[in-house]
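Dear colleague,

Thank you for sharing your sequence with our group. We've completed the structure prediction you requested, and as agreed, I am returning the results in plain text so they can be pasted directly into your records. Please verify that the sequence below matches your submission; if there's any discrepancy, let me know and we will rerun it promptly.
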Amino acid sequence: MSEAGKPRGAALGVIEGARSRSVPTLVALVLGALVLVEALLLGLGLLVDRVLAHSVLHRDELSFEHAVVTHRVPVWNAVTRYGTLLGATNTVLALTAAGCLMLAWRGHGLRLPVFLAVAVAGETVLFVVASLVVHRLRPPIPHLDGAPPTSSFPSGHTAAAMALWCGLALGLARTHPRHRLRMLSWLLAIAVPLFVLGSRLYRGMHWPTDVAGSVVFVLVWLFLLRAALLPGAVRDRSAAGQGPDS
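Please find the predicted structure tokens below.
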């Protein structure tokens, strides 16, 4: 690429650290990953909503939902409200914006903030498209949250929580593998999505296959996106020469 064609300023570090240093090629890689994951998600949604709608799996899910109702207690009714709050779109978007600004301000370079922002934005697009195509009804039990006008499949709360917290852990492991907070990032990547997932099931907002579908599509999306934006051979310049407490 000629000097005139090279990206300037802060964007240079992001492009240099990606799989391709050509902006159009990099955009094509990200969009290609988005299309592939959307196809996977729609396939899973149509499978559970159409093909398996009258199967043993569906009957087992229905039994699970009724069992949930019989085991509800006031204390968990209150606690799981916070799981819904943690996975809400506004919460995740606010935390993502704050996290990206903090990472950039702390001198961690722009590769990780850009990866995290694209991960969450892409997850949102994938979820919205799927919810418009797959019209799965929510479980026929009392709902402890207001049901949004979207399909039960996939679980948007679960997907959003995973995109943020798992995305942060995967990105940090690639760009700053010796960071002192890496273990905390993995703890949050496991604990927060599990809490959100369990809360949404407990509150009757999703079938088990809804949250399972979210886990699958977000993990595939994050790994494909990381392969494009954060290839393993490249570390942040800001991380070079830093010790284990960086």
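Summary note from our side: The CA atoms of residues 17 and 234 lie 6 Å apart.

Kind regards,
the structure core
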